[in-house]
Amino acid sequence: MSKINWRPGTMINPLPAVLVTCGDGPENWNMLTVAWTGTICSDPAMCYVSVRPERFSHPLLMKYMEFTINLTTVDMARATDWAGVRSGRDYDKWKETGLTPIPGVKVSSPTIEESPVSIECKVKEVIHLGSHDMFMADVLNVRADDRYLDPETGAFSFEKANLLAYEHGFYRQLGPIIGKFGFSVKKK
Ligand SMILES: Cc1cc2nc3c(=O)[nH]c(=O)nc-3n(C[C@H](O)[C@H](O)[C@H](O)COP(=O)(O)O)c2cc1C
User: Fold this and answer.
1) What is the pTM of this model?
2) CA-based nearest residue to 156, from 142, 141, 145, 167
3) Would you list the DSSP string of 66-107?
4) Closest CA to 89 of 31, 42, 142, 4
5) Cα 63 to the center of its chain, rounded Å
């Protein structure tokens, strides 16, 4: 076996492809697809999205300093791709994708009704990195679709939500669960 060396690149895979919503009212609410996103702190709960300054959404993020990360599902794959290849500069993405905006609870950016989990964020810091600006944010609220709650335990089933993954240009459905946190050390 041998390893080859590639030039430095963005090779962390798989990633989520999320729909980030922004804007402060129905007249300017927009969404864009983002793969450069992640959790950066557990307590306080913090996450980030990295967005290119040329995106139509960028000035909306800078102006209102709030956004919502809406997780996407296999059923939402087409809309997720569409929102990532067309701009709010030219289209009403709500009309074109058929996704439904509902008002946020703690932020002015909307929640996508069809999304199983929506994470409302307030920007703490913007870091200009190069091609992208990183919006580091506090999580103010998480909205979960109660269709995925177990009526007995109250636990949220991510498995039932059928989340969408993104792998180097391709959208993927997740496979079966093969273990649980800590399973490697659990006594039989
Ligand atoms: C799967 C996927 C992932 C993307 N990830 C990012 C990202 O992390 N950051 C970014 O700035 N643009 C990303 N884009 C591109 C934007 O979503 C795209 O340019 C979109 O049209 C911008 O919309 P807007 O002009 O309405 O803001 C991605 C697109 C796709 C399809």
Assistant:
1) 0.98
2) 145
3) EEEEE--BGGGHHHHHHHTTS-TTT--HHHHH---EE--SSS
4) 31
5) 20
> What is the DSSP secondary structure assignment for residue 9, as one 8-state letter?
-
**Structure confidence by residue, pLDDT tens digits, 50-92:** 999 999 999 999 999 999 999 999 999 999 999 999 999 999 9
Q: 111-121 b/e with 16+ CB inside 10 Å = b?
A: bbebbbbbbbb
CA of 60 to the centre of ligand 1 (A): 14
| Nearest CA, atom 9, ligand 1 | 51
Residue among 173, 30, 25 nearest 99 (CA): 30
Give distance in angstroms: CA of 123 to centre of ligand 1: 19
- Tens digit of pLDDT for each residue in 179-188? 999 999 999 7
Q: Would you call 60 helix, strand, or coil by DSSP? A: helix
